[in-house]
Structure formats: structure tokens, C-alpha cells
């Protein structure tokens, strides 16, 4: 399959798809909250893949951070979702296309576990993220992401952006970071924002929150 060049990509189509992704997140999640920050683009975003929402949340965060993004996607899945071509996604078996995206100043989202897995600790990583870091000067950023229901009706997406690492250090960095995020989720007050995280996208409020807001309006 030929990879679309930037000249092939319709800016309008891409904007419409990305706006649709944001609306999908807003309509189904309570919020997206982030800890840490990204270096200037291009960046290699290396995240765990334990939720259907991972790519959509990454897209929302990167839009907020003003990073143009390209996702590395399983080649078979990408062939099945042709409507995503305006985004210029990169099939996993065409790494040179990922290098092109980085050279164009885009942030490359890669999920180095290689497949969607159940929630839990990090599993062994494929070599792709480290290979991209070896081939370029783009910072390799470990990202931990959990989509969880805590003290509200709808799930929250929690994104922990780590400090850049070398390729050889990616696996232990991701494992430690995800363990730390899970521990924080387990011990924090579920009705309060997670300590150290800032909300970058708001979504659906719980029934009790909406009733509370209505009651406040009536009392006024």
C-alpha cells in the first residue's frame, strides 16, 4: 500500500477526522488529564496499549499541545480502515514512512507492545520505538495512559508524559512509570482530580453532578 505524502493529505479531511475524534472522546469520557509536558516536535510518543481509547486520547492530547501527529498502526488494521488515510497513518511494516513523518516535524505515536492488551503491567516491547530513536534526533518519550472509572459515572483518561529516554531504557522506564500511575490511581481520592494532573479536555459529567448544577441554578 502506498503511503500518502503530505501533498496527498486533504487538510480539510484531516481536520474533520481529528475534530470527530475529539467529539468521540468528549461524548464518552469524563475528561482527559495530563501530567508532564512534551518537548517541541518532532517527538516519538511511546505508550502502553491497554485500552481501545489509547490512540484517540493521544490525538486529543497532541492537538491540545499543538503537535501534528502520525500514528503507527498495524498494517492489516490500517488496510481495513481506509477512511483514515487522510491522516497519513503509517503501517507498522513501513518504518521508512515513520522516519519521513518525523523529518516533517510530526510527532510519531507508537504503541510498542504491538497489540491491544488487557489492563496490567507493561508487557515485552517490540523494537520499533527504539529503532526510530536510533535513526533520528527526535526525543523518545515514555507515555503511561489509563482509562478508568473512579468516583464518577464516566471513565477518565489519565496521561502521564515522562522524561525523554534512550531506546535501551524505554522498557524499564515505561514499566516503572505505569506502576507509579497505577499506584497513584489506587490511593488518590476518587472524587478529586488526580494529584499533579491538569485537565486538557472536558467531557461528560456524572448524573449527580448535572443534578447538582441544576439545583444550584434553581436556588439562585
Quick one: CATH class?
A: Alpha Beta
The percentage helix is: 25-40%
Strand order of the largest sheet: 4-3-5-2-6-7-1-8
Q: SS-based structural class? A: alpha/beta
Query: What is the number of independent domains?
Result: 1
The CATH architecture: 3-Layer(aba) Sandwich
Radius of gyration, CA atoms, in whole angstroms = 18 Å
Let me know the average pLDDT.
89
Describe the structure.
This protein is α/β, with parallel strands linked by helices. It has helices at residues 11-28, 54-64, 75-80, 95-103, 128-135, 170-187, 207-219, and strands spanning 31-35, 44-47, 69-73, 90-91, 107-110, 140-148, 156-161, 198-202. The protein has one domain: 3-Layer(aba) Sandwich (Glycerol-3-phosphate (1)-acyltransferase). It is built from seven helices and eight strands; from the N terminus they run H-E-E-H-E-H-E-H-E-H-E-E-H-E-H. The longest helix has 18 residues, at 11-28. It starts with 10 loop residues before the first helix and ends with a helix. Residues 1-9 have low confidence and may be disordered.
